[in-house]
Amino acid sequence: MSNEQSPAVRSAVNPEEMAEILRRTGYRATVAELAGQPQVQSAAQGLGFFIGFGNAAPAAPGGFIDLAFQCLISIQGEVPAGMIEGWNRSMRFARLFRQDAFLVLTMDVVLAGGVTDDYLCAQCELWDRVIRDFILHLRNPAAEPTTGS
Q: Which domains are present in the chain?
C-alpha cells in the first residue's frame, strides 16, 4: 500500500488561485477587474491574454466552475479569406473569430466534476502551445496548426 496522497481535486477556482497557477507554470499574472468582472491578465509568446471567468460556483464563494483563456488581436482592414475557417477546421482546443476590429482566440476550461492543479497547469501549457500555433497561423494562414492534430 502506498503512502502517497492523491492530489487535491477542486471543482472551482477563484481569480487569485488561477493567477498563482499561472505563476507556477512560469507566467507573470495580475488579477484585475474589467466592467465589474474579474480576470487574470498575462502574456505568452509576446502576446497579451487574459483569463475570464464564467459560471459562479454555488458552493465556493468567489470561485468559478469554468474559465476561458482569451487573446485579442487588433486588426485593420479585412482578414485574409479562409484564415478563421482554416484555424477552426484544424484546431481542436481553441476557436478563432472576429469581433468588431479584433481577432479573438479563445480556449475554454471546465472544472465540473473536479480537476487537479496539475490539470490546470497543463491547460496553461496547452494555451502556450495554442498561442505559438496561432502566431504561425497569422504568418501563414494556409498552414495547418499542429496542436489540433
A: 9-139 (3.30.1460)
